[in-house]
Write a structure and sequence with these properties.
It is a single chain. The protein is α+β, with helices and mostly antiparallel strands. The chain folds into two domains: 132 residues, Aminopeptidase; 159 residues, Aminopeptidase (3-Layer(aba) Sandwich), CATH 3.40.630.30. The protein is built from 13 helices and eleven strands. An eleven-stranded mixed sheet has the order 1-2-3-4-11-5-10-9-8-7-6, sandwiched between helices. Helix 6 packs across helix 7 and helix 8 runs antiparallel to helix 10.
Length: 315
């Protein structure tokens, strides 16, 4: 902590840092803009933010820097210090054993700093860093796939009755999120989220999504049908302005037994909503185990864009 990010290490890692853009698979988007926003540019700006930290490991010949941040909201919710790794910087000739040693030292540093939990969300292309963290005792928690739908003007699908969730439904939407357990998402696959912690976190996230954290939350609007599903959407407005393209991202969805079959309907209406706004892309991320979502993607013309993984350590 207290170190400055080394420019020469950013240069060495530029090819991998590009994949930290959540839109790296969208070929129509400008590569240089994505690097400035999410890759080399974000890395250069990293140490300027007060909540961002840099841990530097110096081996006999090589230097490795870990860039990570303190998550205040998560810390408050779980009543334990939570951190997130952005990436690590190192020369391309750094040996795997050196990276693993650096990752062990970083884990020890986190423990000394008082961390209770730390996770890293990494693009699958960053193989060396993933392997180093794994060797250092950071288990793989979740593998994620991001799908995208483009060509929205060519989207032709039956319409379904939906509406935006009302503010007074926020707590009920939270309960739907908590009840729709997925043993393969990180809040249930990671043993650190003991008992009902993962359920409570998802409930709170869904609640604040309705209260304004997300741009829209769709629910069924079919007469006589109880509301037992929802889909929360972010329109990623700041990214849209910077990249010159319009997006809608599915950030959280849950379907209970009383609304079986409504995942496809809610996603289809999300595409219709994006189309009506003049958006270019709809994005949706799910676990690599979620075959039900794969079937929705196939039926609605989504394509696979990227793969990522989450690793974590706890103390």
């Amino acid at each position: 902590m207290g170190q400055q990010v080394k420019a020469e290490l950013i240069t060495a890692r530029a090819n991998k840092l590009f994949f930290y853009s959540p839109y790296n698979f969208l070929r129509a988007l400008n590569v240089e803009k994505q690097q400035r926003l999410f890759g080399t540019g974000q890395t250069e700006r990293y140490a300027a933010d007060s909540i961002h930290r840099v841990f530097e490991f110096r081996g006999e010949e090589k230097t490795v820097q870990f860039l990570y941040t303190y998550l205040s909201w998560d810390t408050g919710f779980f009543n334990a210090p939570v951190y997130k790794v952005f990436t690590a910087l190192f020369d391309t000739t750094t040996a795997a054993a050196t990276l693993a040693t650096a990752a062990v030292a970083f884990k020890q540093h986190l423990q000394q700093e008082g961390a209770a939990y730390c996770f890293a969300e990494l693009p699958i292309e960053d193989t060396c860093l993933i392997q180093a963290l794994g060797t250092a005792g950071w288990p793989l928690i979740e593998t994620r796939l991001t799908f995208f739908r483009d060509g929205l003007n060519d989207f032709h699908h039956p319409r379904y009755p939906v509406r935006s969730a009302h503010q007074d439904e926020a707590v009920a939407i939270g309960r739907i999120a908590a009840a729709a357990r997925n043993e393969h998402d990180r809040f249930h696959a990671d043993p650190w989220f003991a008992d009902d912690q993962g359920d409570r976190f998802l409930a709170r996230y869904a609640t604040v999504a309705v209260e304004g954290y997300c741009d829209d939350v769709l629910v069924p609007n079919e007469p006589g049908l109880p509301i037992d599903s929802f889909l929360a959407i972010s329109d990623l407005q700041s990214h849209s302005a910077s990249l010159g393209a319009e997006f809608s991202r599915v950030v959280l969805t849950a379907v209970g037994p009383a609304n079986r079959g409504w995942h496809l309907k809610l996603v289809a209406e999300t595409v219709q909503r994006a189309r009506s706004r003049g958006a270019d892309y709809v994005l949706m991320t799910t676990q690599a185990t979620n075959r039900a979502v794969f079937r929705t993607c196939e039926k609605l013309g989504f394509k696979l864009g990227s793969t990522g993984c989450i690793l974590a350590c706890s103390f």
